[in-house]
């Protein structure tokens, strides 16, 4: 009996969902545009912060110099 009730509730909710999508299509498009805009801003902010952190992390790194290292007193030349 519980299975039948859950199936019926599911069908009723799907029907209400389809009706709501059709009835409020203009509002749904506005909401989708807003979500895309907010996600674009957040993604851009995240990439910007990642780029800044990569630039800051790379400031201390220096390429190795081509000059030979001096040998210590006990090491052969």
Could you explain the architecture of this structure?
The protein is mostly helical. The chain has a domain at 24-55. Helix content is 73%, strand content 0%. The protein contains 2 helices and no strands. The chain has helices at 2-23, 25-58. The protein is elongated.
Secondary structure blueprint with pairings:
Layout: H1 2-23, H2 25-58
Distance between the termini: 91 Å
Counted by DSSP, the helix tally is 2
| Largest sheet, strands/sense/barrel | none
Structural class: mainly alpha
Rg, rounded, reads: 31 Å
Specify the overall morphology.
elongated
Average predicted local confidence, pLDDT: 87
Range of strand content: under 5%
What is the helix/strand order?
HH
Low-confidence stretches: none
Helix content: over 70%
Q: How many β-strand stretches?
A: 0
Characteristics of this structure?
77 residues, mainly alpha, 2 helices
In short:
By secondary structure, the protein is mostly helical. The protein is built from two helices and no strands.
